[in-house]
Design a protein that fits this description.
Layout: H1 2-14, E1 43-49, E2 52-58, E3 62-66, H2 71-90, E4 102-107, H3 110-121, H4 126-129, E5 136-138, E6 141-145, H5 151-168, H6 175-184, E7 188-190, E8 198-200, H7 206-217, H8 224-227, H9 232-238, H10 243-265, H11 268-279, H12 283-290, H13 293-302, H14 307-312, H15 318-332, H16 337-342
Helix pairs in contact: 2-5, 5-6, 6-10, 7-10, 9-10, 10-11, 12-13
């Protein structure tokens, strides 16, 4: 098909190769195409959902379906999604791209989002419909709705990581690492020279930084021994205000930074090996061989436990790592740290 060929040519020129996909769609009537100067757009054609006119927009790595009406969002979104995928494929180590473009829905309203969730997930929709605000990734698809001029993009960057894992990783990641990396991928700012193009800066994440600083100030940081066995859904079930869950996400975000850069990056090789093994189906076997089948089973069934840390950082006990992490957080949230973080600089390395 001409469309598939065009996608492949664009991908080889700028990012990664991918082939076309054919997600469910409803054709729309003719509506005016906004002037979208997005160099990654391969094709744009009308699409609608529940009587709301919108667009199906193809880029090399993403198949976007949207009924959002905000013009600035429509201008920025295709390039943002494409560049976010390029970032996550290379932020820690080169990762293998999914075999198909990421199927992504950005709907114009919560009611459309509810209906799409029921349509795509059927009997599995109920827990997702409990989400108060935001979106989710399931079965490799990202399903969001317009949350405003910044939060929509943050949500897409976060859930896009989960889409990547769901479509190209053979073994499950520990939840603390999966969520920490999803938060790590959120940080960005709009470029001054190209104001509709993002620059991805993992530290530039005001919400996560402020939550981390508040948790540290209240002495509310979870010990690593608790963090690695916790799941955000369990924290939400037991924490009516959501503070524990927000602390969990902020701490997972900071822990990924810690693994990457603390002590001159001496833990980075272990993190890279863990990710490479998870993508290639070796993580569970490695945990089983190095730590024991019980930890591998816990990782397989609940995606929790300290087995992955013990397997890939064998020279450092969990208690020693916890002490080093707390010292790292203390440096990160000290005076002047917030300004450095929002500039995209590490507040812990100074």
């Amino acid at each position: 098909m001409i469309r598939t060929a065009a996608r492949a040519i664009t991908a080889s020129a700028v990012l990664t190769g991918a082939c076309g996909s054919t997600p469910p769609r409803e054709e729309a009537g003719a509506i005016r195409v906004p002037a979208v100067p997005a160099s990654f757009v391969v094709e744009r054609r009308p699409w609608s959902y529940q009587g709301h006119d919108g667009w199906q927009i193809s880029t090399p790595s993403v198949e976007l379906f949207t009924t959002a009406t905000d013009r600035r969002l429509l201008i920025r979104l295709p390039d943002f999604l494409e560049l976010a995928q390029a970032h996550r494929l290379n932020a820690i180590l080169p990762l293998r791209a999914p075999p198909e473009p990421l199927e992504t829905y950005v709907l114009g309203s919560r009611s459309e989002w509810d209906a799409m969730t029921r349509r795509l997930l059927g009997d599995l929709a109920r827990p997702y419909l409990r989400i108060e605000r935001g979106g989710y990734a399931a079965q490799g698809r990202g399903i969001f709705y317009d949350l405003g001029p910044r939060d929509t993009f943050v949500m897409a960057a976060h859930e896009g990581w989960h889409q990547l894992v769901q479509t190209s990783f053979a073994d499950p990641l520990p939840i603390w690492l999966d969520e920490g990396l999803a938060c790590y991928m959120e940080g960005f700012r709009w470029r001054l020279d190209q104001p509709d193009r993002p620059e991805f800066l993992p530290w530039s994440n005001e919400e996560r930084y402020d939550q981390l600083r508040q948790a540290a100030a209240r002495d509310a940081l979870l010990p690593l021994s608790t963090l690695v066995v916790s799941r955000p859904q369990d924290l939400l079930d037991t924490d009516r205000g959501g503070g524990d869950a927000l602390n969990y996400y902020a701490q997972c975000w900071a822990f990924v930074h810690f693994l990457i850069e603390d002590k001159g990056g001496r833990r980075l090789a272990g993190l890279r090996a863990m990710l490479a093994d998870a993508q290639n189906g070796r993580l569970l076997d490695t945990v089983s061989i190095r730590v024991g089948e019980e930890q591998a089973r816990l990782l397989r069934m609940r995606r929790t436990g300290g087995g992955a840390l013990a397997a890939y950082f064998p020279d450092e006990s969990l208690s020693d790592m916890d002490a080093a992490f707390r010292a790292y957080v203390a440096r990160a949230v000290s005076t002047g740290g917030r300004d450095r973080a929002l500039r995209g600089e590490s507040p812990a390395l100074r």
